[in-house]
């Protein structure tokens, strides 16, 4: 069987280092996400200022993720990723030294970009080493979930014990461990850069040609449909982080019980990651991804119709979390296989760009709908709209499944 011959990609003969990269890579970002609101509150900043600090971390990722991804393809994923990990380590102790809003916002923008690009590098590296196999990407994602669970707990403990200085110091140590894991992990195959592998000053600046070539990947049906599914997935997460919380608070649930519902999604997402490799073999991956996404939309948008019964809310989150966990590595896998080994950084950059754009655009739209029609009705409106958006994606998926895969990875840049 074909699946058996690819059971162990050559780059994963020793998978421990890249799985450790997954654990500490995503957690590296979550560590700082958790700390910045606490630090802002300790300085007496307003809710709007804290909101700007939280949102500022995504600014560079929206505009430069594609550029950084191209640099990874050109000069080596691990090399570029290490640069951004080291940048975040150096910037960590600067946070406690800046009690003023505008300098802190600038620092947050730069540090947030470094953290985002470091995590993009980790995703690119696993896609390259695993040769796009969902089974190994799923395991990597499982370890990443462990990191996202542990990082806020450790950050909160450090903050409670000593405030900003020990908390950000541990954040820097987290980056040191990530550095060690990256140095231990193998470098993936790469094309010879036009400059022979040497970095030039003009490589610092984005190229319109690189961006055009990257967006051209959307012409591949499987890339387009998986990117559309990522947008829909981000929309469900936007519902969870906004309307869902408002509704649960309105029916009398407390912070602890709401937090348990969120934790349930994370836990079962992690378990779902481990099933992604098997799910790839059950049928058409694109149809599986789309059906899982539609089910996730329905499961969160029926929240007002569950009668406020906590057991039903918990059950819905268990199923939704598991489905999202299965779908995510599948999306990464089909994208990695569609573009070939030498465009992994570019496709991850494109994915990150669309993901950050969706995260910025969708929540305000949800807020407008909720203000106009009320929270309960908003679930229905959003459910209908998101489900209707799935229809053209389903049509493209059906047509794309009839076509042979396009091997763009061997095309010239």
Written description of the protein model:
The protein is mostly helical and 413 residues long. The protein folds into 2 domains: 11-201, MFS general substrate transporter like domains (Growth Hormone, Chain: A, Up-down Bundle); 207-402, MFS general substrate transporter like domains (Growth Hormone, Chain: A), CATH 1.20.1250. The protein has helices at residues 2-5, 16-42, 47-56, 59-75, 77-91, 101-129, 134-162, 164-184, 208-215, 221-250, 255-273, 276-280, 285-301, 310-339, 344-373, 375-400. The longest helix is centred in the middle third of the chain and has 30 residues, at 221-250. 77% of the residues lie in helices and 0% in strands.
Which regions are unreliable across 5 or more consecutive residues at pLDDT < 50?
1-5, 404-413
- The percent range for strand residues is under 5%
Main beta sheet: none
Number of domains: 2
The CATH homologous superfamily of the largest domain: MFS general substrate transporter like domains
CATH class of the largest domain reads Mainly Alpha
What general outline do the C-alpha atoms trace? Answer: globular
Contiguous helical run count: 16
- In helices, the fraction of residues equals over 70%
Question: What integer is the average pLDDT?
Answer: 85
CATH architecture of the largest domain: Up-down Bundle
